[in-house]
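Researcher: Structure prediction, please.
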Amino acid sequence: MKLKEHKIDGIEPGSIAEEMGIEAGDVLLEVNGKPIQDVFDYHFLINDVLLTLLIRKPNGEEWELEIEKDYYEDPGIVFENGLMDDYKSCYNKCIFCFIDQMPPNMRETLYFKDDDSRLSFLQGNYVTLTNMKDEDADRIIRYKLAPINVSVHTMNPELRCEMLHNRFAGEALDKIRRFYEGEIEMNGQIVLCKGVNDGEELEYSIQKMSEYAPVLQSVSVVPVGLTKFRDGLYPLKPFEKEDAKEVLEIIHKWQKICYEKHGTHFVQASDEWYLLAEEPFPPEENYDGYIQLENGVGMIPLLESEFDQCLADELEDGTDGFDQDMDSEAIDGFESIKTQNENLNESEVDLREIDRSETVENKSLDEPETENKTYRRVVSIATGKSAAGLMRRLAAKFMKQHPDIKVIGNPKTFTMIAQFFDVDLSDDRKVVVGEGDTVNLGTHTLQFFMAPLVHWPEVMVAYEQSEKILFSADGFGKFGALDADEPWEDEARRYFINIVGKYGVQVQNLLKKAATLDIQMICPLHGPILKENLGYYIGKYLTWSSYEPEEKGVVIACASIHGNTMIAAKKLAEILKAKGEKNVVLYDLARDDMPSAIADAYRYDRLVVAAASYDGGIFPCMETFLRKLKAKNFQKRTVGYIQNGTWAPCTAKQMQAIMGELKNITNAEPVVTIKSAMKEADVAQLEALADALMA
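Model: Predicted structure follows.
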């Protein structure tokens, strides 16, 4: 086995490593005279009171460092690679794999399938064991590493091979037995698929897994997650209400059996089952200390329990259990709660160039000038459909305990609240604000500005004056709201075009208002907080909302039935590149992510649409694409056309008719017509179209 060297990326401040002069860029060679293969070896070997580390400095000099420490004390070394080894990818092709049903054209890391037992210990990942060698299992047992989380899915070896599309998947189950005999604590998971591993198969799996209790501490049963991107995948169906009831009946049966035998409920149902079955959640003690919480088991009942406890603590000690650190001035004021529903769905830019004729004057609330009202806090409640009932209950409980609570919003806010929440909002509990109004929260002052159609009709944004923060609603948002480390531009463009894009004029109006404010931070509803280079982000919004192209380039959007139209589209892309066009992007509208195609159509200055005839019309995915462009005010572009038909090609005329409804569209000539399949004689047409596009 090749010995590995491990580059040190950083040192924890105040750590033993810092004291010993270890630095970023150094390389760890050995611990106690033994080489380190990966993180397993490292963590096992450093758990000793006496350590000898062999370190190589960047100049090639080797240091042998003797360290005396507490048994479990970490030296404080951070490695360039957390695993200290390459990540192991999954060998399986599971019928339920969520990554296989991800939307296309997203960042590459989202499509990596890991199946690495080391991540089970470091991050809690569930592993199938098919990627685990015998020597890996031996190390786990020898090092007493625990717990390990196992994706079991079924204890039927033959069925497991079928579900994982891996002929060794059944044999891998034997490692569960080995871990049991080695007293390595485990947690299990079953992803339940309708008509596959449910019913009798679920009963069998639970029964067999219970034989490994209590070393196997728990098993969660979760319903398969399905998306619309399942073309060519196993035909799985979603569970219905009655299905969920049957699943819960099996789980509750085995909970009783296991509790009598082991003193734990062992098998747990994820929260989705109770929501789908419309059944109440079990009492808190049934969750065995919420051992499967991170797998979605007990999250909702725990939230409600903690909420209730917070309210109870508040009543008991006479203080606000939700916030113990408010300043006295703010506490003398009154509270506010804002509700919303998630389902409603390098150059600097000189903002002085923006017309400021619409500068908004500050207004004050309708109250005596001598009265200084303060608002203690804004509480936001965001929910999706499945948890809406819970959120309504929590909101009602909160409002009941706080009868003097005030709700701040514009007039439409209160209409929307009433549609989603059954709460008492009489007139004396409302504070209605409008354009330019300010509200004093004690240490903070909010100023409100209407931003209609960005992207809901009643949108209002808020500007916090002391810290100079713009709470921008859907403005400056992006898809992948929690992915703050990925590049902002592509996902933000896609978000803008597909969510806000139709309302460019309204976005421009909001930007004019923003130009009157000293903004140091932007906080959108969906996306990362923006703190630096704000001119860059605002500049992008100025371009997008004016419908100007960002770059020179050609997007070829193709709707091909049998592949012949795509051959012509690919040939055009090849010709354009040969002629020196740097940016050529090709989309298969029948297979690729359409929102990405729409976003790129806005990004570049030229578009080619290529479509086959279908029942005397346009192949539907192309018609959908064009209608979406129209809906998002697509304009200021040059468009070329390729049509294909066996009897009477007709799509170009129909596509031009849709484009004719848009502003400032220039049609490129010639229209390329293919009869069934591209011939050598058709290449001249494509060459001519390429020349026209590049003229």
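Model: Residues 551-694 form a domain with the Rossmann fold fold (CATH 3.40.50.360).
Researcher: Thanks, that helps.
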